Amino acid sequence: MNINLLKSLVVLLFVMTVVSITNAQGDAKKQSSLTGNLIVDSRQASDKLIQSQTPQLNFQTGEHKNRWLGGLMSLVLPGAGEFYSQSYLKAAIFFVVEAAAITTALVYNHKGDKQTTFFQDYANKNWSVAKYAAWTLQHVSYINPDINPNDYKVFRNNVNWQSLGNNTDWNQYNDDVDWTELNRLESSLGLGYTHQLPYPGEQQYYELIGKYPQYSHGWDTSNMTDTDYHTLTQQYLWYAHQRGLANTFYQTGSTAVAFIYINHFLSTLDAIWTVDRYNSSIAMNLRVNPQRVSDKVEFVPTINLSYNF
Fold first, then answer.
1. How far apart, in whole angstroms, are the C-alpha atoms of residue 287 and residue 54?
2. Dist CA 184 CA 202 (whole Å)
3. Both 240 and 119 in a single domain?
4. Whole-angstrom Cα distance, residue 56 to residue 287?
5. Which of 1, 83, 91, 259 sees the fewest Cβ atoms within 10 Å?
6. In the Cβ-directed half-sphere of 108, how many Cα atoms lie within 13 Å?
């Protein structure tokens, strides 16, 4: 046998013997660490457990939102800021109120316009400034005895106002009335004549003829022989009601417009508050921690709550 090969086999055998002895000593040490007590040995075994990673769950609300953007959105369109901050019920409420208020305003303003056109057309056909002027001139002595009607040239073209009666076609004399002289007469009479008649077509014209008794005898159904301007006809009262109805429609429309402004204001404030609430929502963190209970290792769920301002 080759001498060199024999030497190599001897060295290899020696190395293997040393490794075997070392491993045997390690196993002996491990065995010597056990006591034979089941509880103690299990505790030692559990201490050597390495929990590399425990399961963890996070529950967070959405992204941070801008409170001023939410307020601006609701200022433009009530409910938009609430929708932006995911408060959908409040968004719907503000939007419905806005839609209802706008609809009410449009409907009742249209009713007011239509009613105004109606009572103005009625006045144009049934109230005569010539009849009102003639009745006033004929009954000046009952209204204010200190006034001489001949000092006032209310009618142009030498119209004989004293002869005008219930059967007169008043439309033919309306253009003969001198408005300046009529107003001067009204101002001089005083007493119950508290206003001066505006020109036809003006809003105040249609209001006054259905509001103050001094104009009651300009209506078709009034009696020229009456001596008291306080005598009111059903026609006068009916016209006053129609004019008042138009005002009621406009008032309802104005109230609805006020609600629109209020709704915008409240929605803006609420949107800012709602966005702040959204940003201050609760963030929850859930994880499982290992704990020893009665010589046992148990996994206990742990919840961490944080509230952000």
1. 7
2. 19
3. yes
4. 4
5. 1
6. 19
Among the listed residues 90, 73, 119, 141, the one whose alpha carbon sits nearest the alpha carbon of residue 238 = 119
Structural domain includes residue 152: yes
Number of domains in the chain: 2
7 belongs to a structural domain: no
Three-state DSSP class for residue 24: helix
Q: Are 94 and 118 in contact (CB under 8 A)?
A: no
Q: Are residues 72 and 157 in the same domain?
A: no
Domain match, 203 and 259 both: no
CA dist., res. 167 & res. 134, Å (int): 13
Quote the domain boundaries for residue 126. Answer: 108-249
Amino acid identity of residue 199, one-letter, is: Y
Last residue of a domain, one of 225, 249, 273: 249
pTM above 0.85, yes or no: no
Count of helices and strands (H, E) across the chain: 10, 3
Residue 260 to residue 102: CA distance in whole angstroms = 7
pLDDT by residue for the chain (309 residues), tens only, comes to 444 444 555 444 454 554 454 555 555 444 445 565 555 555 555 555 444 444 555 545 557 889 899 999 999 999 999 999 999 999 999 999 999 999 999 999 999 999 999 999 999 999 999 999 999 999 998 989 999 999 999 999 888 988 898 989 998 999 999 999 999 999 999 878 899 999 988 899 999 999 999 999 999 999 999 988 888 999 999 999 999 999 999 999 999 999 999 999 999 999 999 999 888 875 554 555 565 555 555 555 555 555 444
Residue 28 lies inside a defined structural domain of this protein: no
Alpha-carbon span 212 to 189, nearest angstrom? 15
Residues 140 and 160: their CA atoms lie apart, in Å, by: 16
Half-sphere exposure (CA, 13 Å, Cβ side) for 280? 8
- Is residue 216 situated within a structural domain? yes
